[in-house]
Design brief:
The chain is of the alpha/beta class. The chain is about 45% helix and about 15% strand.
Length: about 900
Amino acid sequence: MENLNKTYDPKEFEDRIYKEWMDGKYFHAEVDRNKKPYTIMMPPPNVTGNLHMGHALNNTIQDILIRWKRMDGYSALWLPGTDHASISTEAKVVEKIKEDGKSKEELGREGFLEEAWAWTDKYGGNIKNQLKKLGVSCDWDRDRFTLDKMLSNAVEEVFIQLYEKDLIYRGDRIINWCPSCETAISDAEVEHEEQDGHIWTFDYPMEEGGALQIATTRPETIPGDLAVAVNPEDERYRDLIGKHIILPMMNRRIPIIADSYVDMEFGTGAVKITPSHDPNDFEVGERHGLGQCKVMTLDGHMSEEAGPYAGMERYECRKQIIKDFEEKGLLVKVEHHHNAVGHCERCKTTIEPLISKQWFVKMEPLAKPALEAYKNGDLRFVPSRFGKIYTHWLENIKDWCISRQLWWGHRLPVYYCEDCDETIVSKEKIETCSCGHKVVQDPDTLDTWFSSALWPFSTLGWPEETEDYKYFYPTDVLITGYDIIFFWVIRMVFSALEQTGELPFKDVFLTGLVRDELGRKMSKSLGNGIDPLDVIDHYGADALRFTLVTGNSPGNDMRFYMERVEANRNFANKLWNAARFVFMNLEEDTLKDISNYSQFVGEDAWILSKLQKVAKEVHEKFEHYDIGLAAAAIYDFIWSDFCDWYIEMIKGRLYGEDQEDREKAQSVAYYVLKNILKLLHPFMPFITEEIWSHLPMEKGKLIVATWPKYDESLVNEQEEHAIEYVQEAIKGIRNARAESNIVGSKKSSITVYTEDDKIKKILTSNEVHFKNLGYATELDFIDDKSQIQEQSISVVLEKGELFLPMAELVDFKKERERLEKEVEKTKSEIERVNKKLSNQGFISKAPEAIVKKEEEKKIKYEEILKNLEERLSEMPQ
């Protein structure tokens, strides 16, 4: 039998094993009516993106679940894919062609799309290759892209169905507009950044004399004001309702209106209403029939409607308006103001809310069933607290702007007649209207989230009734970040309910953010990002995967420490060495399956019983998505129970002359190792597959081996208690010896006092472990404590006590000399610290943390001195 290499080096086998999995089609899921389906859809990363720690965490969790279910007998499909990411990809392509000395407009739509496809072909495979390095076992045969023909067909189908049901319409609404990208963008593409700004308070002169004070953070929108609003319950302004303001600089007569939207307690209680540039003002304007006044162009300059400010860049206009108000004595005050300002996630330009003719989805009728599904308990969030976010968003729904002024993406299947203004929605390309005149297609594309919302079913062939769709849909669980509940999760739910009549998934498992060791979000600006591929290169994929899941709990952010990656590599190394030891001590021709043995006792019964419990615990934790707790359970079993205890306990048997007992120890060790590899495989697939390939009795790959089943017949509470009692006793002996600085080479007899026959039997039957692991020459049982030697160290146990004879273990003269030296050394440290703390110059100048550290040192040294002096007083002369 070939053993493992002496040194654990993941670089030697990780790529090779992944290729073997790929070549063997082990990730591919078949439609198999004899098996239950289990389906996960990979949240599609941006096609031209690169792997970051958030992707690594999310995909590791998905891979753990899919590997578990595959081994547990399911036809487990994990479908991968990428998103065309319209705005981010278009921005990159525009930048590229700009470097080539061209512009988007020069190339024209077709030329630009050729460039975009070339860019996608060049960079689109990066993240897939990076995911493979992580070890993901998704079905690459079913790899999807949101602009694939099949998915594009589904997008057009949904658009047309919703349009025909009057759930899609075109209208003027306030949208998020990026003046740099010159497109509407979704809420998901807006980053709100806290920043320091100002709030200006101006006097608005009234037509009949006097003035109202109005505060704003956006003076550049003043030319678009069409009213001033007050709360109808506000007694300060009740008599002014219906009167008029003369808008400064514009000389426009605007009404004072009453609307309950106004908060009487905020500011002056009087609010400027700019319907074309604020979503709340738009609603007020609609209620009061104010009309529109759009004072900004699409590139962030002032329009003709802005009168004297026309043509100015928006922030230049702001400065000029403030100056003009000040010169006219209408600037009341300027205050510092800290608020969250929306920026385009791609170009970082400040977003401008403005009115625009766009395409929208009516959300209220779609939101209702999505809300009911959650309230009925059909849809579950893990952790459950995120259900409140889901509910809140759906209960406060607004119509969804789905059109984008971009070329890269799904073009709207909408045509306009150049003559009769007819609007035609069609999947087929059309050239002429029913009136006989030419039509032009709407140049806009759909919001990326529109196609992403269909991901759980469009990827399986819907609207066609494909075998994949009928078998694998609905999916089982969505694993995604908590930050896109309202942007993606909700849209998938209402889209699936509307189009398929079913929820797209039963459970939503939400991950948190992966932060740096200081708790900061990883970002380019902070320079604190950690490349998962660098970690894999240094420590291996298994160490990274295990670090991500053991440091994470559902819905909570985690801090990433390289020290923990190193510790988990050490864990892999410990398993590697344990496997090598087992292999070195196997006799392949006499190795038996444990079913050949009718009874197990001692450490064999204990480890087999513990194995059943950890198998059951891991399975149950997986069922509840407690991935981190499942990892901790198998970690503790491998490190402590198997490596630190069981292997040490059976060494004497493996090296002994009793062949039958030796073979039994070999068989149990082999069985436990085999099942350890199965339980650990979802977490650390590479090392487990490599070790598995060296098991002499196993055929085939571990990735498709049978998941361990809980076997109650192997649970033995009595032997568990017995061995764990022995372990506690040995740990007590080791601790007592360490505290007394007894060298490891010195052994002694151990005196045992107990009045409990069961305890006596446990210790007697396990005496060999005290000799091999507890530094004992023998166990000497006594019935009377008067028989205990003087100067013995006591180890107190439940219903028993052990005594180590100091005379056999310690040279009292040398130990006294050592302790006296330690006392003097500790006293000098206390004296040094006291001098420092009594120095007023040090106390006044040193940072508080340094002073506190010195105070803690004093307490520590005083405690050490107390213990040393107690030990000295107990030492015989």
